[in-house]
Amino acid sequence: MKDKKIIFSGIQPSGNLTLGNYLGAIINWIPRQDEYNCIYSIVDLHALTVRQNPAELRQKTRSLLALYIACGLDPDKNVLFVQSHNGAHAELAWILNCYTYTGELSRMTQFKEKSQSHADNINAGLFTYPVLMAADILLYQTDLVPVGHDQKQHLEITRDIAQRFNNIYGEVFTVPEAYIPEVGARIMSLQQPENKMSKSDENPNNYISLLDSPNTIVKKFKRAVTDSERIIRYDEKDKPGISNLMSIYASVVGKSYKEIEEEFQGKGYGDFKQRVGEAVAETLKPIQEKHRELMADKGYLDNIMKDGAERAENLSYRTLRKVYKKIGLVPRG
Ligand code: AMP
Ligand code: TRP
Questions:
Q1: What pLDDT does residue 333 have?
Q2: Catalytic residues
Q3: What is the pTM of this model?
Q4: CB of 209 within 8 A of CB of 16?
Q5: HSE-CB of 73 using CA atoms within 13 angstroms
Q6: Does the beta carbon of 12 lie inside 6 Å of ligand 1?
Q7: Cα 50–chain centre separation
Q8: Ligand 1 centre from 20 Cα, in Å?
Q9: Biggest alpha carbon distance in the chain?
Q10: What would be the CATH architecture of the domain defined by 204-292?
């Protein structure tokens, strides 16, 4: 059945997609749609680990689907679907919970961080979040998972769970590899370049939303925190702000750090920030136009969701049935 290798990835519909999501993840999904069988989910169940406003969650789920397509994912070539539309994810997650140790979950940095930022709601879902993610990936016999750097640890635990299960029951799961890009995997906050750019950040000046207007984008870049050296050179440790802007510019225009240093030799930070802002705004313009068009066509988006859910379900139930059989659950007949 496996004529091509399988790619799976997902994004939570928990806020407006940021430039970090785009450069760390989506931009790497687009060029692979012919070479691989690609499955991309809108992981709404994951988003529930933090309190969501129901109406907003619905709206953001649709908007994220429209953004996937607007960014260039062809719904005919890729399976695009909403996680909660395929019951197999929650089912396999339960099983895998019983093959995951609380010790390994308590070492997850995202859990530690989110426990701090949501101290009033450290729920069990937040703790077992990586197990649901493992289920997402393993259900489809995924070979490759393109994600940003922050998901590296979750990929490692997914591999550990898969290997542990296979060691007991034979080759049930493909053990997936992470694909983390060299440039763009860690886009940092514009005001606090020591933190990652996050769509749930309270201060909108910290991130670029894919739906920000060109003016807002340029303004946010002009306000970005830099340093007092006044030289454009890449140095993550001593110049985190400038280095972050350089990695954004590098991803967007496809230049190396060396070429960027040459381009802006003798120029000030003001010129550089202006140019980065303009380049980002130019890149996002066609995506925003397409997104607007798609959001106006509810029927089209609904059909894609429905078709995606059916395809995802068909693919994943093969794995789920095999798992049930291996562990000794009686088939319903
Ligand atoms: P999330 O927004 O947490 O659902 O993340 C969706 C995808 O975007 C994952 O592959 C993340 O690794 C990636 N991502 C999120 N934030 C960033 C960032 N600041 N830089 C690079 N990649 C990111
Ligand atoms: N945990 C990922 C994030 O926060 C989102 C995600 C959920 C995911 N399931 C996935 C990514 C499966 C890749 C594969 O970014």
A1: 78
A2: 114, 196, 199
A3: 0.94
A4: yes
A5: 28
A6: yes
A7: 16
A8: 6
A9: 74
A10: Orthogonal Bundle (1.10)
Helix or strand or coil: residue 295?
helix
Q: In angstroms, what is the span from residue 183 Cα to ligand 1's centroid?
A: 13
% of the chain residues with pLDDT over 70: 99
Task: Characterise 101 by phi-psi region: left (phi > 0), alpha (psi -120 to 50), beta (else).
Answer: beta
Give per-residue pLDDT as tens, 222-236.
Answer: 999 999 998 999 999
* Contact 21 CB / ligand 1 (< 6 Å): yes
Ligand 1 atom closest to the CA of 12, numbered from 1: 4
Name the β-bridge partners of 79.
39
Share of the chain above pLDDT 90, in %: 93
CATH number of 6-180+298-327: 3.40.50.620
Q: Which helix (H) or strand (E) holds 8?
A: strand 6-11
Encoded tokens for 16: 């407006």
25 lines ligand 1 (CB under 6 A): yes
Mean pLDDT of the region 151-169: 98
Q: Is there an atom of ligand 1 within 6 Å of 154 CB?
A: no
**Where in the chain are the domains?**
6-180+298-327, 204-292
Which of 208, 172, 173, 175 minimizes the C-alpha distance to 189?
Answer: 208
Q: How many residues does the chain have?
A: 333
Radius of gyration of the chain (CA): 21
The amino acid present at 195, given as its one-letter code, is: N
Residue 11 Cβ inside 6 Å of ligand 1? The answer reads yes
Q: Which ligand is nearest to the CA of 145?
A: 2
- What does the block give as tokens for 149? 């750097």
Q: Is the torsion defined by CA of 171, 91, 140, 160 positive or negative?
A: negative
Q: Tell me the one-letter amino acid at 331.
A: P
Which tens digits make up the pLDDT trace of 121-155?
A: 999 999 999 999 999 999 999 999 999 999 999 99
> Contact at 8 Å (CB) between 34 and 258?
no
